[in-house]
Amino acid sequence: MQSRGSSNRLSSSSSSTFRSPISTLMLSMLATMASFYVAGRLWQDAENRVYVIKELDRRVGKGNSAVSVDDTLKIIECREKQKKLDALELELDRAKDKGFIANQLSVKSGTNKKKRLLAVIGIITRFGRKKNRDAIRRAWMSTGAALKKLEDEKGIIIRFVIGRSPNKGDRLEKEIEEENKQTNDIIILKDYVETPEEIPNKPKMFFIHAAEHWDAEFYVKVNDDIYVNIDPLGTVLANQLDKPRVYIGCMKSGEVFAEQTNRWYEPDWWKFGDGKSYFRHASGEMFAISRALAHFILINRSILRSYAHDDVTVGSWFIGLDVKHANEKKFCCSQRSSGAVCAAA
Questions:
Q1: Among the residues of 61-125, which ranges form H helices?
Q2: Which DSSP helix (H) or strand (E) runs through 9?
Q3: Whole-model pTM over 0.85
Q4: What keywords is this UniProt entry annotated with (predicted)?
Q5: 53, 181, 200, 307: which sits with the fewest CB atoms below 10 Å from its CB?
Q6: For the chain, how far is it from start to end, CA to CA, in angstroms?
Q7: Same domain for 192 and 72
């Protein structure tokens, strides 16, 4: 019994001794293979990194230099800015859809950016005023090649502004169309009808049309019985270029008339308080607004209300805005002051 137990213990000991070297050998082989595998993967990853760096260098033309930390940070910054730009473009598209921003301007500049004009001058006229228009053409507006030269050399565009007849296609419209064929200096507002009740809206329609068709620093409204000295006007406007939102004119106020029999009756008289006096606004004979204000009118055209008079109407739009009201005495056309840029006929 004892010899058999001893024999079993000896056999078990011999088997353990035999398996131990085999296990160690197997573990060593597995460790070696794992080492080769890991080393291979690291080598492959290293080769991939070298390839990527070389490819980046080849594409950016920097030779065999590696991408530095600064370059990486710049790439990240660019990507973040691109994300912000994409988000802003999305917001812009949404704003356009809701009508807060004009969908597009009609200004076409091709591949080269066209130099911005100094001013677009709209001479507000109406049917039966051809003598006034001809007098202005002879006195200060010029015609033909001289008008084009004024645009090219001084950056000033001048056009008469008129609407449609209440009787579409009648003799009055045909006369204007024929006149414009000869002079090519009239803006015909297709969405404006020449009626007394629509007069306060006419400057708005001009500013909308002008802002859609020309990119200018200023937009100027002038009546067709006003004579303008172009060079001094250009000087006055140039002196206001540092103000992004400016409303230039001969500032005035005046009584609000509540009596319907009065020529200057104001239906909304009650809005102006017990004093019955209009707020400060530029005289309607001639005034100018900056580019930002013209685009404000263009964008918000559908919600800008009108009062009885065109000058009060325009002035009302800027009361609640951060706008510089420039009281320019040289725009007081009826006063015939020294150095005035305009004079009433």
A1: 69-97
A2: helix 2-60
A3: no
A4: Glycosyltransferase, Golgi apparatus, Manganese, Membrane, Signal-anchor, Transferase, Transmembrane, Transmembrane helix
A5: 181
A6: 145
A7: no
